[in-house]
Amino acid sequence: MDLLQQYGPALLRGFGFTVLCWALGTIFGMGLGLLIALLRHYGPRWLCWILQVYIEVIRGTPFLVQLFVLYYGGPLIGLRLDALPAGLLGLTIYGSPYFAEIFRAGFRAVPLGQLEAARAIGMTEASIVRRILLPLSMVSALPALINFSIILTKETVILSIITVPELMYQVSRMSAETFRYVEANLVLALFFWGLVETISRLGRRFEARVTKHLIERT
Amino acid sequence: MFSIPVFLESLVPLFWAARYTLLISVGGIALGLVIGTLICAARLSPSRSLRRFGAVWVSFLRGVPLLVQLLVFYYSLPLIGVDVPAMVAAVFTVGVCASAYISEIWRGAINALPRGQAEAAVAIGMTPADVWRRVILPQAVTMSLPALINELILLVKASSLVSVVGILEITRASQAQAATTFRPLEVYLAAACIYLVINLCLAGLGRWLEHRTAV
Amino acid sequence: MQASAVEIQKVNKYYGPFHALKDVDLSVPAGKVTCLIGPSGSGKSTLLRCMNFLEEYDSGEIRIDGRLIGYDAPGRKMGGRALREMRRSIGMVFQQFNLWPHMSARENVAEGLLRVRGLPKAEASARAADALAKVGLADKMDNHPSRLSGGQQQRVAIARAIAMEPRLMLFDEPTSALDPELVGEVLTVMKTLASEGMTMVVVTHEMGFAAHVADRVAFMERGELVAADTPDRILHQPQDPRIQSFLRTYHERNSF
Ligand SMILES: Nc1ncnc2c1ncn2[C@@H]1O[C@H](COP(=O)(O)OP(=O)(O)OP(=O)(O)O)[C@@H](O)[C@H]1O
Ligand SMILES: [Mg+2]
User: Fold this and answer.
1) What 3-state DSSP class applies to B46?
2) Strand (E) positions, A32-76?
3) Mutate-to-test residue for ligand 1 from C11, C13, C15, highest number of ligand atoms within 8 A of CB
4) Nearest to B93 by CA among B113, B74, B76
5) Which of C84, C98, C112 sits opposite B117 (nearest CB)?
6) Which residues, including other chains, have CB under 8 Å from residue A125's CB and lie 6 or more apart?
7) CA-to-CA distance for B79 and A4, rounded, in angstroms?
8) Chain A interface, mutation test: which of B79, B165, B185, B200, most A Cβ atoms within 10 Å?
9) Which of A117, A152, A150, A140 is closest to A210 using CA atoms?
10) Cβ(A178)–Cβ(A3) under 8 Å?
């Protein structure tokens, strides 16, 4: 009880940072991923190629190492960031190639005929993307998008290693002061379990609502 | 400024540290295969409580960040009197975590097989053991090889987290290197390169396997 | 009276609350071809699959050569070993072929001889070759299913069944998954089998096959076995209005 009183506010603040990092990281990562996917879809060949390399490099290296490069290596080339912005930027970069690949697969799943129908009535490419390509690709992409967003909640704990004051960071500090390592981490584990289960459940419900009329009944 | 000699120099010791990274990921996948197979069997078994157990196992290990799992195991093993080297604890954690994903890979592959395949075997009077051994497993294994390689790639990356419990794999070694040389940019980029090379090789292997089985 | 290869009495089957087979009676004469026809969803496949207990029936009796299948006594399930023993002598051919894609045609056929009949490898392989030759696939023995046409795959599936030397063969719409031009080769193999005196139960939508090859035709609707008689009396002079309307729909759909 005392412990809770003493550390409660810090934990709550940590949780706030966790949610913040996750939400912003997901939104920015998704945005960057969408941009990459569109550029690969419409852009010139050389750009596709560069983006392909970017995707392979980011997906081929651990998030932690990416954070180290950014946070500790950045200042050497003049990129001096605090822990929180560095963490957010890291999360955005880390997530973007996965999101990009999900969008790309979604684009591919859209039947060509439906895009041709839009072109045939004279829609501009931009409005085809906005009105046809994106909504239709959601049918197949949404489950994967939700799934990866959930994976990102778990990645936020890694930000504690570069001292972003999120939940894991607060728990580590608390357990270092109280020597209750096992309990603290166990509680944290249960907490994440509950969180991820809840988000998954909500995600499935959301998914069912959004794609309801888009999925053909046979 | 970015110094290429520093970058090249740090490649050598990091490359050497990669053996621990590989040991942890390969050990993890091996342990994960064993446990994952058992969990998958539990999830497919007729016993309701076994199925429930398997489902909870998978949901817990997939819901909890690996870093948290690692610390839970690392700190609680000594408490229950198990005094193991950090390396063993690391392989154990990574393997247990992988088992959840691997059991899902198996389950997906088995469920993807058309039901009729097993039925045809039952109809000519094969024993359940033979149906599994001769019809289901050979196909499930070939089908899931690329997914298993993918899992191995994930483990190579995930193994960077065991640096927090002090194992001198690539990431930990690069931290030490960065601290002594004061050149974090070059050192961490070198570390990233080594991970990238390992994973590109594995991805190539995965593609080759996929291509070979897709005939 | 003729000996019955399969004797079905008052068989009922439920899928949850759904009554899929309702008091079905049918006797399948030995050495003859019996065709099961009826609208989609009427329970033809279900009845056929009950005959080798791939599907469990809930009440009634199904006797294969006089022996009850699936149960030792009413209400007491048969042991796995005894059931496998009985299934060995019942061949089954599926609509979707269900060949094992990781084995060649020959290995598909030899597998049962090897694992179930326990024959030595060389002999199993030789018999598999014979069975494949019989369905006209001597030159495709080493192909995997993915390198065979649909008609060839179905013939391999038939070879896989006959290699076990069954006394009864069950066919569940063996030609429904095939392109029209491939149907003929499979029906030819089945006709040959029939002329050799194999007892066959064939679920089919091929009325031509039923009319020319079957000795008996049974008509099912909504889980009930409406009538079983000679092809002529079912297909050409049907008494029951349900059969008449089914045939009318069939003729309308197939005339152009
Ligand atoms: N596993 C199952 N669970 C629930 N209902 C089932 C199951 N299998 C079949 N049914 C139902 O039982 C009825 C009979 O099915 P069956 O497959 O025997 O029909 P059928 O006469 O073979 O039709 P078709 O000509 O289309 O193959 C159908 O209404 C079907 O919906
Ligand atoms: Mg059917």
Assistant:
1) coil
2) none
3) C15
4) B74
5) C98
6) A42
7) 23
8) B185
9) A140
10) yes
Q: CA angle, corner C209, sides to C207 and C211, nearest 5?
A: 65
Whether the Cβ atoms of residue C176 and residue C99 lie closer than 8 Å to each other:
no
Ligand with an atom nearest the CA of residue C205: 1
**Cross-chain Cβ contact A65/B203 below 8 Å:** no
Structure tokens at C199: 């007892």
Distance CA A174, CA A157 (A): 15
Helices B86-112, B48-63: axis angle to 10 degrees equals 120
Q: Which of C78, C88, C33 is nearest to C56 (CA)?
A: C78
- CA B1 to chain C, closest CA, distance in angstroms equals 57
DSSP assignment string, B116-163: HHHHHHHHTT--HHHIIIIIIHHHHHHHHHHHHHHHHHHHHHHGGGGG
Between strands C76-77 and C71-73, the pairing is: antiparallel
Give residue C57's identity as a one-letter amino acid code.
Y
DSSP labels, C45-89: HHHHHHHTTSS--SEEEEEETTEESSEEETTEEPPHHHHHHHHTT
The tens-digit pLDDT sequence of chain C (256 residues) is 457 899 999 999 999 999 999 999 999 999 999 999 999 999 999 999 999 999 999 999 999 998 999 898 877 888 888 998 899 999 999 998 888 888 899 999 999 898 888 899 999 999 999 999 999 999 999 999 989 999 999 999 999 999 999 999 999 999 988 888 888 899 999 999 999 999 999 999 888 889 888 999 999 999 999 999 999 999 888 888 999 999 888 888 776 6
Chains that touch A (3 or more CB pairs under 8 A): B
Token reading at C232: 């002529």
The chains in contact with chain C, meaning 3 or more Cβ pairs closer than 8 Å, are B
Ligand 1 pocket test target in C13, C35, C44 with most atoms within 8 Å of CB: C44
Structure tokens at C40: 């989609």
For residue B4, CA distances in Å to A78, B7, C42 come to: 18, 5, 76
Q: How far is CA A62 from the centre of its chain?
A: 15
Closest chain C residue to the Cα of B213, Cα to Cα:
C102
| HEC assignment per residue over A3-41 | HHHHHHHHHHHHHHHHHHHHHHHHHHHHHHHHHHHHHHH
| pTM across the whole model | 0.81
Measured between alpha carbons, how far is residue B49 from residues A116, B45, B52, C180 in Å? 53, 9, 5, 49
Largest separation between any pair of C-alpha atoms in chain B: 73
CA of C144 to the centre of ligand 1 (A): 31
Instruction: Identify which ligand lies nearest to the alpha carbon of C24.
Output: 1
CB B10 within 8 A of CB B186: yes
DSSP three-state, residue C172: strand
- Asked if C56 contacts C31 with a C-beta cutoff of 8 angstroms, the reply is no
Distance C46 CA to ligand 1 centre (A): 6
C-beta atoms surrounding C200 within 10 Å? 24
